From TrEMBL:
UniProt-recorded name of the protein: Peroxin-5
Alphabetical GO biological process terms: protein import into peroxisome matrix, docking
Family note: Belongs to the peroxisomal targeting signal receptor family.
Matching SUPFAM superfamilies: TPR-like
Chief localisation class: cytoplasm
Location in or out of the cell: Cytoplasm; Peroxisome
Keyword terms of this UniProt record: Cytoplasm, Peroxisome, Repeat, TPR repeat
């Protein structure tokens, strides 16, 4: 494995996400982002993983990064809406 190969870290992140090892997935995506900071799709993957691990606030920040890089990214818009809704829902339960 090459530590400078962002794609390896992305694939690890996806695999960790699928196995619900969210902390490891987040770490892998953050490592990949150090190598590819302008990858809107990667920011969206990070956000989705953070949202899955119940970190909606952090997810929204990642989605915003994705949208800053690609304003018409439909996936990031949809995911951001879901994260905002989850925040409202979780606050309503308190």
């Amino acid at each position: 494995m090459s530590p400078e190969d962002a794609d390896v870290h992305i694939e690890l992140g996806v695999l960790y996400n699928l196995s619900r090892e969210y902390d490891k997935a987040i770490a892998s995506f953050k490592t990949a982002l150090k190598l590819k900071p302008n990858d809107h799709s990667l920011w969206n993957k990070l956000g989705a993983t953070q949202a899955n691990s119940v970190h909606s606030t952090e997810a929204i920040l990642a989605y915003q990064q994705a949208l800053d890089l690609k304003p018409n990214c439909v996936h990031a818009w949809a995911n951001m809406g879901i994260s905002y809704a989850n925040q409202v829902f979780s606050h309503a339960l308190l």
